[in-house]
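Justification of resources, computational component.

The compute hours requested in this renewal are based largely on the per-chain cost of generating structure records like the one below. Each record pairs the submitted sequence with a full structure-token output. That output is archived, and it is also reused by downstream analysis tasks.
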Amino acid sequence: MTHYRPQSFEVKGGPQWGRDHLPLLRAKLAEAGLDGFLIPHEDEYNNEYLPDRAERLAWATGFTGSAGAAVVFTDKAAVFVDGRYTVQSREQVDQSLFSLEDLTGAGVAGWLAKNAPSGARIGYDPKLHSPDALDRLKAGARKAGAELVPVSVNPIDAAWEGQPDAPMAPIVPHPIEFAGEDHASKRTRIGQAIAEDGADAAAITAPMSIAWLFNIRGGDVMRSPLPLAAAIIRKDGTATLFVNPDKVTDEVRSHLGNEIALRPESEFEAGLKELAGSKVSVDPSSASAWVFDTLDSAKATVVRRRDPVALPKAMKNETELKGSAAAHVRDGAALVRFLHWLDTEAQSGEVDEITAAQKLASFRGQLAELRDLSFDTISGFGANGALPHYRVSEASNLMLKPGSLYLVDSGGQYPDGTTDVTRTVPIGQPSDEMRQRFTLVLKGHIGLALARFPRGTTGGQLDILARLPLYMAGLDYGHGTGHGVGSFLGVHEGPQRIAKAGSDEPLQPGMICSNEPGFYKEGEYGIRIENLIYVTDPAPIPGGEIDMMGFENLTWAPIHKGLVDVSLLTAQELAWLNDYHAGVREHVLPLVEGTPAGDWLAKACEPIAG
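The structure output for this chain reads:
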């Protein structure tokens, strides 16, 4: 049974979108007296995954990646992407209309400094830019003698015929049995943090923070159970939730209680202006420039601080950790059924990437608790697997032919937890090189999994543990090693991060992270091994002097032993792998016992001799 919108594999975007829509946008700019317009990927809520209505960058350019930007002038235009999307942007953007530029480094601001016409009035939607990013853009425009001009009506919205309506999914309470703490307690804690920051109130616009703070969930964004809304919380813990009243049921009103006022989201501006004379905490990395401008115009004192919900949300309580563990066992059974299918029927050479993604979704869909996928499944064979952020479509779909590797990165949303797991499987016989590089990735995965570290350690300090075996062979991978994960929330969550340029946020007990080193041979194959782990409480080490934190595993799914070169593993690494497979068998076998998948699992988890 399916409980969610199935993944679409149709080809979206493409050069024709830019050809069709760029003239319409330029006509609206002329009407508004503008010489140019800035188009970020972000929406008003700084979401990673956008509702269809907010796909403005795709509409204007044809580029559908999850990060990027564009600048449109009357006579030229540019699309900005990072290294993940170099290939995709070439395919989707008409380069006779748009130049392709680098989003990193000098980025849009640097390009404006060199390319904006002197005297140009360049429009921007203040609800779609953070104040810090906007400051950089303004500085770039000034260098060219141009100016940025805020608009009250986005010209893309004015030009976009048939623009989808704003999403209107009903809000539902997130029960205490999954949250582990009622929202009154959360609001008290957050109110105290606001007071400690020297503020009277905080303006919150991040949907994940709002969902966590009020113990509510929604369905306005695919793959993340988010309600699109805004909130003001005061230092005494009382709050106002600004949300479309059509999303709010009597059950939700009762759940929220008397200390949370409900107002239409259209009144958020008025609510901000009512804070005149107050000190208001606002996060410049998540709230838009419009929020800052509105508070400034109301003569409120803006206190730039991190969203006070971000860190408490990331530090899962005991209930959330137990829920996540239960969700991962359930999810593991679906994964085992899929991996059994991959190791048997899918070895025929007659299965393609789309069929494989649909098959995995069908196994998860048999779970009554499934609410959605946690992101569109990355289902990549051979050369497509070498693209870390690959999204299969009807145009790119490959058959799983013997002689290469298949990489599948997927997850599910359950009321008690969010999952995210990657496995790499051989189709036919893998080469010695594939086995060697898979084993190096596995060694890095184990190195991070076994880490012990004192309080104050950041993810950036641990990242090298996952890369060192690859480094020693002259190899590396171009993405981070670990991201935070929410509790029936976003599959990507801060502030923690494990990466070369990691967050300076220390890892704290209860934080859930991914552990996902990889290797990608362009044009041939990709390898990634990803489990979710959480940070444990500090504990003594026999003979040691400092209590150390570590990681506890959440994900249970076999690692393909046919890709392991045992001669490259140390005794400790081999023991870890055998212990891990014993854990997979212990947790998941009871759910698939007596089935062909159960028989397969028992063999897949047999220990490897040294």
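Residues 318-343 form the longest helix (26 residues). The mean pLDDT is 96.
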